[in-house]
Amino acid sequence: MKFTIQRDQLMDSVQDVMKAISSRTTIPILTGMKIEATTEGVKLTGSDSDISIESFIPREDDGIVYVENIEPGSIVLQAKYFPDIVRKLPQQTVEIEVDDHLNVSIRSGSAEFHLNGQDAEEYPHLPQLSTEQSFEVPIDLLKDLIRQTVFAVSTSETRPILTGVNMKVEDENLSFVATDSHRLASRDIPLKEQAQNLSFNNVVIPGKSLTELNKILGDSQESIVISVTENQILFRTKNLYFLSRLLDGNYPETSRLIPDQTKTLVTIDTKELLQSIDRAALLAKENRNSVVKLTTKENNQIEITSNSPEIGKVVEEVHAEVVEGEDLKISFSAKYMMDSLKIMDTDKVHIQFTGAMRPFLIRPNEDEQILQLILPVRTY
Amino acid sequence: MKFTIQRDQLMDSVQDVMKAISSRTTIPILTGMKIEATTEGVKLTGSDSDISIESFIPREDDGIVYVENIEPGSIVLQAKYFPDIVRKLPQQTVEIEVDDHLNVSIRSGSAEFHLNGQDAEEYPHLPQLSTEQSFEVPIDLLKDLIRQTVFAVSTSETRPILTGVNMKVEDENLSFVATDSHRLASRDIPLKEQAQNLSFNNVVIPGKSLTELNKILGDSQESIVISVTENQILFRTKNLYFLSRLLDGNYPETSRLIPDQTKTLVTIDTKELLQSIDRAALLAKENRNSVVKLTTKENNQIEITSNSPEIGKVVEEVHAEVVEGEDLKISFSAKYMMDSLKIMDTDKVHIQFTGAMRPFLIRPNEDEQILQLILPVRTY
Fold this sequence. Notes:
- Chain A is of the alpha+beta class and 380 residues long.
- The first copy, chain A, has three domains: 121 residues, DNA Polymerase III, subunit A, domain 2 (DNA Polymerase III, Chain A, domain 2), CATH 3.10.150.10; 122 residues, DNA Polymerase III, Chain A, domain 2 (Roll); 117 residues, Proliferating Cell Nuclear Antigen.
- Helix content of chain A is 16%, strand content 43%.
- Chain A is built from six helices and 28 strands.
- In chain A, strands 16-13-14-15-28-27-26-20-24 form a nine-stranded antiparallel sheet.
- In chain A, a hairpin with a 3-residue loop joins strand 18 and strand 19.
- In chain A, helix 1 runs antiparallel to helix 2.
- The interface between A and B is medium-sized, with 30 and 30 residues.
- Strand 23 of chain A pairs antiparallel with strand 11 of chain B.
């Protein structure tokens, strides 16, 4: 194998593929990165068996040449050293060559690295998915779906199914739902007509997979193709192939958690509320899991307080645009509330309460696609 | 106590003073920050008994008012929460007030914090230094002196005296020397006439104190006053008072370590050599403490190599401006060499070797004030 490649393109692909490579895998060859050169270009592969990522650098794209002098072949390189080597190469052009004894030479300017490679034949083959269950979404919308839900997955392995995000397609509507049983985050988007005959509701994608995918995808209005089989999901763009296993088990029915009435409605500036809860949380850190209290006051004022007897207390009033319905005193986790407010893209949010002991909803004021639910904390 | 203060100025001072406050101190009140308001302004104090820092915010400076409505008094606040509170306050103006029961109120906009304070009478008094041993240097030169030497102090407590930087004043010359017995860094600067009668050679300042001082001092050509007593050193600017204990014991005589002859002289581009050693060190990380080898070649070429049998090897040639004298093959710690090259401010450096088993010197090519010495590593 031999080729000459542009360092920046190689670096980008190496960084993407590294997100699937773990040094703690039980299959030794998976600590390496597979490099495959064909007449079309160079493909890098990384996998920890849960997630597999392939990144392709085409020989040329849009008239710009990225890879030259290709002699096809493949090799597996120790991933521990390769990213640092590429990053620190002195020149923009890099030559990679493998001899018959799996010795790899990496040359750039007057610097020359010689590494011991491993036989690419020993690298596991990635499964080829064949499925009719495919649909497309714009990349930036997929990134929104991930960002607005994945933070709410459970970090505890007590109920493993809750560490994933539930993806549903129904009636040409795509929804992501995540819950750790104390709060829930969901986001819907309409799908295009192509998804007419598509319907599934028990696809659960590990939160970690979505977090890594979100890091790799750049903001773009281009499409990404999502294909689902019984136990795997594939996200595919022109030069990226991101495969994740799915979680086993039945995702709980969450729709019945959503209260269908509102006793107190608050409409308030997202950022002002976020900052005031952030301040109240400062002194609540060591006290009952950062619990803050919200109280409706006269003249559309909302009071945010926290109290930690040994340290001190915080009191702040925030002016709300709307405060309607019953008076309310409610306590909740500052962290959950801040997580929810941070992913809102609108200046104002509606908060719908149904009493101090009932879950409450947070929605953007101009968008029905996002819904956040938080369970209050009992305080006496 | 009561005053109204500008948040940004308060924040800067709080951050400086925090550098002396440790949560692991054995004297509980030292986990707090002392705040003292006088008609002149507000003084913050932090101390871990090794380092004490006072930062003063004047009532007004250059016609700009920083503190208003002052009712003199003092209090000690828990340092764990205070910096975050100040950082997150909603408005630029902050009011701090203490009642008769040591309750502290911090108000900004509609946010109000109530903290439990401690009696400032219980806070230890900082020693007042009285000494004739004082001199002035420009702040930016002091920062250079620190930056160019402190990295070479020992991190091991085997010989505690080597964890400090030896400060000497002799013949109107100020020098800083640090060594961990494997390498040495020194920097001299001339003092102004005021230092005529000053002479000392066994002042040893803890490396940690200098590192913290360097973080606090901004780049400035203003002067800082340095005062030395038997066991303490004080650095003082208009609004800052930085006191550190000195290390006990005799600092070793280092001048005899400096070789007085040169068998091989190399003059080379600082950055090119640094980057090539950085690359060679990539594969040497797990192999004999990042040892790289330098070999003189024909045509003013220097070869930098490293070799880790299980991983691979790196070879790179760097063109030197001058290669004079005996041929040389020498091995040394890549880390020590990079540390030395990083603090050089000149484009080129002279490296003076006296054989493969002898310490070698690195100097800037246009400056005799900096001297770096590294002991080679034996390899067979």
